[in-house]
Design a protein that fits this description.
Helix content is 81%, strand content 0%. It contains six helices and no strands.
Length: 170
Amino acid sequence: MTVINGLILTLFIVIATSLAIGYGFGVKAQRLPFTAEIGFNQKQWQFLRWWVKLALVAGVVLPIFLLVLAWRQPSAWVFWGSYLLVVAVQLICERVFSRWLVPSIVVPIGFFYTAFRLWQLLDGFTQLTFSYLTLIGFGVVVLFWAANLVMLTVMAIPTVFVDSKSISQS
């Protein structure tokens, strides 16, 4: 991993973690217009169960497979290693902070990490050498994370955002 890449990863993780902690304390203190719980209905929870399985395959298993396919390319090991590191940090943050602070914290964490992951993938596209098969796999990973960002924006954020007037009245 280059020094600049390591610095960017470290800064992102520190900033995202700080924002998540601020969100958690702000929601707990009822100072932010977000709910502590995620207000999904039954159909949304069903969809989410399926979506999480898809995320495991498209966001973790497929990148590991692409890493194995590129075992002779040091740049691929650096790229996919940093990608998987960020995925692991995201999952740890979601688990720890949703238990320690508020369950809804997984929504902003997911949003920030997904946006960063898309930036990572865009950057990786310029660094990696692709065969036809690895290009298709890479494209699937990018499409999944783009769809995840849309899902978070359209489905998840509205379930945790509340009218700011109700916060100011409490």
